[in-house]
Amino acid sequence: MRFIRISVLVGAVALASVASASATDYVLSANKWTSAQTAAVQAAGGTVVFSHGKAGLGLATSSAPDFLSRVTASGAFQSAAVDEMVQWQPPITDYSVEETAINPTNDTFYPIQWAHQAVQSPAAWAAGCTGQGARVAVLDGGIFAAHPDLDANIDTACSASFVPGQAFNSDTGTFWHGTHVAGIIAAEDNAIGVIGIAPKATIMGVKVLHSGTGSFAWIIGGLLYASDPAAFGKPGCARADIINMSLGAEFPINHNGSLVAALNKAVNFAASNGVLVVSSAGNSGIDFGQAGNLTVVPASSGSGLAISATAPLGWALGATNYDRPASYSNYGEGLVTVAAPGGDAALPGEALCTLPLATGTITNRCWVFDLYLSTSRGTTANGAYSWAAGTSMAAPAASAVAAIIVQRNPGISLGALKAKLQQTSTDSGKIGHDEFYGHGFVNALNACTQ
Q: Is 376 a known active-site residue?
């Protein structure tokens, strides 16, 4: 079995203090967060790291062994729980292409980006739909903001990190999951490398993971920040129109209910501020309509949308079955809203295929071309490009289509945006709504013209 990279992480903006090595972090939830909640934390021997008044959520740290019992006894909070670190994306292999920032006659790798044909993005661009004016917050690991295929579209001033001690544009290794996700959404149409589905959308990088690992509090903080930057001391930053979370973990349905509930609350706060939250459905091949005591978050969190993944089988050999369910994708009635291209490594064998690029050709294993090619960190100063597969790749494809809808319909309400994303998707699988595709397979051209 081949394992293809999928990962994510979490972090925090405007940290009030750096916790000592012996301190414990706590996620606190109240109806609203006022001075009374801050005072209750302090009286219990803790320090507020961040909080949001309207959302009623916050992170506190304390070295006091009885902090949890004391803050609970204060009556100031509906729930309080020890924060939990989670591996939101397992470490797996990616396939990289090192490319310096040269200027060929066209974006070098565009001819092997099959996802554009799948969602009809070239026709959407021709109709003037590039995502311009839409803001997409990428809650993920670090984004390499200096990548020449991303630098013009990253709002560095309004990006942030909720990972203590880490900047939003940092991560480990040579892949950088957040960089790959950002390129799927908005890699520039600039005669370099690849092109995103919404190549003129603006990306807010919000680091909430490091090497694929992060805490509930980091993700919650990222959601609150992307929905309301002013509450974190950035009044000049506009909120996101769309939040993309290419991350997920599966838990027993009764696992740490307070933390799961707090995450639900953060997703719903984003919705109350008019922000669409898009999450990957997960990569375990589970039917969550029949999963019994299992849940997957944030795919099932609050009022957000979960995206399943598709990919052709043998695209380099001529296959065009773009809406084929990916071998790993979670699905299920009540979970999936729409499906989108995510890539797959299911083509058997190790035969080589050679395909044309904008200039020259490229040779690799035939199955590699079924993966999703996007930006990555690489080892050079200019960054690189990597193939990967997962619902982590499908979620940003759907977010990019949503960005096209936002461009085409300025000021659109959240309800109308959700409805438009569903209505403009192409019906696939069973006629009508079904457990794998939800309302259908995303379509950028329809999103632009309908």
A: no
Q: Which long-range contacts (CB under 8 A, 24 or more apart) does 358-367 make?
A: 358/104, 358/105, 358/106, 358/107, 358/108, 358/109, 358/110, 358/111, 359/104, 359/105, 359/106, 359/108, 362/97, 362/109, 362/112, 364/95, 366/314, 366/316, 366/317, 367/2, 367/314
Give yes or no: 140 in active site: yes
The model's pLDDT over 108-157, given as tens digits with 9 standing for 90+, comes to 999 999 999 999 999 999 999 999 999 999 999 999 999 999 999 999 99
Which entry of 25, 94, 140, 323 is annotated as an active-site residue?
Answer: 140
Out of 279, 392, 399, 425, the active site residue is: 392
Top-confidence residue, 19 or 92: 92
Using pLDDT thresholds of 50, 70 and 90, give the confidence band for residue 317.
Answer: very high
Confidence of residue 93 (pLDDT cuts 50, 70, 90): low
Q: How many CA atoms lie within 13 A of 61 on its CB side?
A: 15
